[in-house]
Known about the structure:
The chain has a five-stranded parallel sheet. The longest helix has 19 residues, at 101-119. It has 22 helices and 15 strands. It is 43% helix and 16% strand. The chain is elongated. It is an alpha/beta fold.
Amino acid sequence: MSETVNIYPVGIQTFEKIRKGNYLYVDKTKYIVDFRKKKMSYVFLSRPRRFGKSLFASTLQAYFEGRRELFDGLAIADYEKEWIKHPVLHFDMSTAKHMDMSGLLSELNLKLLQYEKIYGREEGAENPNQRLECLVKRAYEQTGQKVVLIIDEYDAPLLDVVHEKDNLQSLRLVMQNFYSPIKSLDPFFEFVFITGITKFSQLSIFSELNNLENISMFDQYSAICGISKTELTTAMKPDVEGLGKALGLTYDECLEELRRYYDGYHFSNHSEDVFNPFSLIRALNGQQIDSYWFGSGTPSYLIKSLQKYHVNVMDIEMNGVSVDDFDVSPEQMTSALPLLYQSGYLTIKKYSPITKSYQLGYPNMEVKVGMLKSLAPNYLSPVSVDNNGLVAKFIELLYDEDVEGAMVRLKAYLSSISNRLSNKNERDFQTVFYLIFNLMGALIRVEEDSAIGRADAVLHLPTAVYVFELKYDGSAADALRQIDEKGYLIPYSAEGKRLVKVGVNYDSEQRTISDWIIKE
């Protein structure tokens, strides 16, 4: 295995450590220049988990601490001439997850103590809000410079309990109390930066801080976190070539695979294309394309939301959401879509200015296959049947050009699960097919939309293209006729591969596939 050219900061979120250790740093300091030029002083940024919010917060901290030596050669070095050293209070709330009220209070106590060691503590200050207020004022008095406040993942303590009314209420009060002095401290602040995943509008932080600029959906900040295509094809180009070699792909093919797997995030109407940094860095570092971000844990609040709103696996993609629904806080949501977007499982595919609505879809293969795999057991249970095993076997048989064998296999599988399908209607049958074909997408290229209309599934293999059309209580001959009449094969005729049509009929009496016709 070849060595990577760059040293990748896997799991490192501290700017200083990255710069001193000569790790690859994708320069995001032009955004700080932008904040300073526009004299912005209260900024809120929402991005999915593990998307580089903490690294950006750490970069801001180093900048405001005047640590010029860390910024050599970066965009801000050309702009900043003074490098004034400000006192910085940086609170990372991600350490306060899964806690009850007393746990949260003791966590805040620890965070405040570390700064009280430096700036001292007022005698009468007992509650977190009083202590924060005194800290800011003391830091300002002692240094003669205005204070910078950074709150990273401000909503972390609340997200996990968003479905627990009582617990949410008490924890929200603690956080509300802690954040409450921010507005009145305006004269003492140089800059306030807050990150999170959602916008809890009930938190006074948003109602009182009416000067808080939410930059999360502005085009010019769409690539403030994550890695853009330009960044990937410049600084990281040699490692993309190296990964290609390791996988037996050309540079362009490797880029296309990385794009298919990790790209596709859009955070605004005309957003840059953003790659998931967590997965991309791990793929280049380990020289293997895999589900890194998805594999690093699906938050429990998300699974609970999908259950609460009875989300059907086929309905997740390509749903429209109005702009008003988008900025809604978790307590006021009427569907799981905004949360799926904020958490990074869906992204903006299209914005319609006329209806002021967004179309949402999975950003990429990693998320789509990960999502379907975690939801599949609800539809394809018995656990005794290995869904992945079925999919792999099906593809192997197609590779061996044994379509008949693949269909026999599928028929047996459907017979084994049909008794457990909820209401045994056409929709359930389609859901199962949708899942099976999409899980194949992890291994081969699968598509459903063609310019002319949609075949139920098109599978691309090295030597052949398979077009499947499914009928419910009809006949396989009808299905084949539809492939011909609608011209589903036309888009693939120039590829020089064998074209195979498969018409399939599902019989609701037998609850499995009754017949199929395979035709080249």
